[in-house]
Amino acid sequence: MTGFSEIADRFDLCLCDVWGVVHNGVVAHRGAVEALVAARQRGVFVVLVTNAPRPRAEIERQLAGFNVPKDAWDAIVTSGDVCRALIQERAGEPVFMLGPDRDLPLVAGLDAPRVGPAEANYVLCTGLFDDETETAESYAGMLADFARRELTLICANPDLVVDRGGRIVPCAGSIALAYEEVGGKVIYAGKPHQPIYEMAVAIMERERGVPAERSRICGIGDAIRTDIAGANGFGATSVMVLAGIHAQDLLEASWEHRHDWFAEQSHRPDYALPHLVW
Question: Coiled-coil regions in this chain (predicted)?
């Protein structure tokens, strides 16, 4: 497929990833923005679905900073939105927040007293304290202690890595995976798990007053493990953008190599294109 226009008329609802598709953390991808605007002009309801561990208002401000116009989407759903609901279920319990200060808006206004790792009843992981220099291995001792104490870890961003201006940096999902590997219990707030998709569909159904048929939903993203697995698991049509976190393997490769690469993956997209364009 060379452009989304080839299949857009098959869908009433488009669930589109943000980081890796709409922007790369440094600049917006203008072709993707134009494609989403064009899809909306043709009646497709566009929900940006992101594993960003922040409330949707923070993502709106980020997109504005990249000069992404508001007519590129109808709504935004974040793993942060889902995560806040999970935190509210544990109101009043002391929590250790593992992640950078930029994610503090996630707990703003919630009854979630922040404490040190030794005093916590559970862990909220939004990322690494310093994703420029650290990896999940940097937290091995801390995670082993959490597992020994049988603490639940809420992962606010299931992504393993993200492309930041051409560099791959680790995300909260890498911490969560390492925690599971030492026997820890993890609750995931975002893609590929269903609650974030259900929240997005509910917005469309509320706005339009009609039920969303799974056969008329597409999910666009750049990550096999989250975007494609999530769309497939939800019963939506999956569309993969190759110029994201898997770009080194796929973007400049032949279609024969791409076919072989996809054959080795646990999840495969229904469609693929180098960049999201109309």
Answer: none
The CA distance from 188 to 196, in Å, is 10
> Are 120 and 151 spatial neighbours (Cβ–Cβ below 8 Å)?
yes
81-188 to CATH, choices 3.60.40.10, 3.30.470.10, 3.40.50.150, 3.40.50.1000: 3.40.50.1000
Identify the three-state secondary structure at position 204. Answer: helix
State pLDDT tens for residues 67-120: 999 999 999 999 999 999 999 999 999 999 999 999 999 999 999 999 999 999
- Given the candidates 2.60.40.10, 3.60.15.10, 3.40.50.1000, 2.40.160.120, the CATH classification of the domain at 4-80+192-273 is 3.40.50.1000
**pTM here?**
0.83
Beta-bridge partner residues of 273? 241
Strands (E) in the chain, as ranges, are 13-16, 45-50, 75-78, 95-98, 122-125, 152-155, 161-164, 167-170, 185-188, 217-221, 237-241, 271-273
Q: Is 228 exposed, middle or buried, given 0-12, 13-18 or 19+ CB atoms closer than 10 A?
A: buried
Give the model's pLDDT for residue 252.
81
Exposed (0-12), middle (13-18) or buried (19+): which is 252, by Cβ within 10 Å?
exposed
Domain ranges of the chain: 4-80+192-273, 81-188
Q: What is the pLDDT of residues 230-258, one digit of tens each?
A: 999 999 999 999 988 887 788 788 888 88
- pLDDT, tens digit, for every residue of 51-63? 988 889 999 999 9
